[in-house]
Automatic annotation (TrEMBL):
Its cofactor is pyridoxal 5'-phosphate. Residues 29-375 form the Aminotransferase class I/classII large domain. It comes from Longimonas halophila. One of its GO terms (molecular function) is pyridoxal phosphate binding. Belongs to the class-I pyridoxal-phosphate-dependent aminotransferase family. This is Aminotransferase. Keywords: Aminotransferase, Pyridoxal phosphate, Transferase. It is an enzyme of class 2 (transferase). PROSITE patterns: AA_TRANSFER_CLASS_1 (PS00105). InterPro entries: Aminotransferase_I/II_large (IPR004839), Kynurenine-oxoglutarate_AT (IPR051326), NHTrfase_class1_PyrdxlP-BS (IPR004838), PyrdxlP-dep_Trfase (IPR015424), PyrdxlP-dep_Trfase_major (IPR015421), PyrdxlP-dep_Trfase_small (IPR015422). One of its GO terms (cellular component) is cytoplasm. Signal peptide: none annotated. Its EC number is 2.6.1.-. Pfam families: Aminotran_1_2.
Length: 393
């Protein structure tokens, strides 16, 4: 068939390696620690309220920024947990996942000629969505747990075209949690250069070893130049429901809301009613339990990776480990680079991971790294750890 010429914006888009590795691991009936898919059950109160919403036939479009009670509940959460100075539901927009909110934020702010700062290792969707806006991305390294922001590198990346900066905390893939002093330094530069931040705080409740989640927008003077994004996917095990939100000053939310209306009309209405249960019925106890469950999983996976020879920066937050297999290269075959190592683990341990190159502008920078996700049912994670230990004994 004659090929049709497509828009230039699609040129850089390609299927990520993750899907191919998923197929390979499925073919050997293995365990997928690659994709950031959480296989834990959705809490019953959320399912119950959603069933009720369907029974009550809550089926027509909602307001494009979401139903008022959900926006109100998100506003209260943003005030109490994130310490944001938001005061009204016109500062809250519900969208189709935090990804939907990210798309509207990026489209509202950025266009060709603008520059945007992205820290690496980065989350691939951020890079690809930013590319679609036509803006130029400047990459600034931010290694991982324990490492601090390189202020000089950040300053070098800023010029008169820089408009925005993307801040993910906790970071997927490295597990770094931004410290308050780093956010203060960033804010200083944002104010000097008149920049806006889009934050992605989807892992805000997944914290270890007393690490504190600080929202950039809670710092004095930051709220007016920050779009804060989060969502329900990760904290409430509803990744497939596609429900997330943005909190920002009203003039930003107004335009983002209009874009949200254009792209999606609204987030799925019965699920909006159902997720009220997340904010109203599942309180501190639920979060504390989740944190201790993930801490146990983190320990199991990190100890396993260390035992088989990886260099493991233990994540401070989120549910991924970006581990370095360089020490294994001297003792094992099949670890020449990240692609080879990923293949070796699928073949020998029947465990999937993600190649380090997926998180860097230059594939070389992720050459000796693999990302593992530990959001798995405990017996499955245990089995994966056993398989890794057996294969690399
Ligand atoms: C950093 C980050 N942001 C956003 C998402 C997706 O969030 P949502 O399901 O709310 O679109 C993910 C999923 O892996 C993620 O890792």
């Amino acid at each position: 068939m004659q090929s049709i010429s497509l828009a230039e914006r699609t040129n850089a888009l390609k299927q990520s390696d993750i899907r191919a590795v998923t197929q390979q691991v499925n073919a050997v009936d293995g365990i997928n620690l690659g994709q950031g898919i959480c296989d834990l059950p959705t809490p019953e109160p959320i399912r119950e309220r959603t069933r009720q919403a369907v029974t009550d036939d809550q089926s027509i479009y909602s307001h494009y920024a979401g139903i008022a009670p959900l926006r109100q509940a998100i506003l209260q959460k943003a005030q109490s947990y994130n310490d944001l100075p938001a005061t009204d539901i016109d500062e809250v927009m519900v969208s189709v996942g935090s990804t939907g909110a990210f798309v509207t934020a990026a489209m509202a702010l950025l266009e060709a000629g603008d520059e945007v700062i992205l820290f690496e290792p980065f989350y691939g969707y951020h890079r690809n969505i930013l590319e679609l806006t036509g803006a130029t991305i400047r990459y600034v390294p931010l290694s991982g747990p324990g490492d601090t922001l390189d202020t000089e590198a950040l300053e070098r990346a800023i010029n008169e075209n820089t408009k925005a900066v993307i801040v993910t905390t906790p970071v997927n893939p490295s597990g770094k949690v931004w410290a308050r002093h780093e956010l203060e330094t960033l804010l200083d530069l944002m104010q000097q250069h008149d920049l806006v931040a889009i934050t992605d705080e989807i892992y805000e409740y997944m914290l270890y070893d007393d690490h504190e989640h600080v929202s950039l927008a809670s710092l004095p003077g930051a709220y007016e130049r920050t779009i804060t994004l989060s969502g329900f996917s990760k904290s409430y095990n509803v990744t497939g429901w596609r429900m997330g939100y943005a909190v920002a000053p009203p003039h930003l939310i107004e335009k983002m809301g209009l874009l949200n209306d254009l792209f999606y009309i609204c987030a799925p209405r019965p699920l909006q009613h159902g997720l009220l249960a997340a904010l109203e019925d599942l309180g501190d106890e639920y979060i504390a339990q989740m944190q201790s469950d993930y801490a146990a999983r983190r320990q199991m996976l990190c100890e396993t990776l260390e035992a088989i020879g990886f260099d493991v920066p233990w994540p401070e937050g989120a549910y991924y480990v970006l581990a370095d297999f360089a020490p294994l290269q001297a003792t094992h075959d099949g670890f020449e680079n990240d692609k080879a190592a990923c293949q070796t683990l699928v073949q020998d341990a029947h465990v999937a991971s993600v190649t380090g190159r997926s998180f860097y502008q230059h594939p070389e920078d992720g050459r000796t790294k693999l990302r593992f996700c530990f959001a798995k049912e405990l017996p499955i994670l245990k089995q994966a750890c056993t398989q890794l230990r057996t294969a690399l004994a």
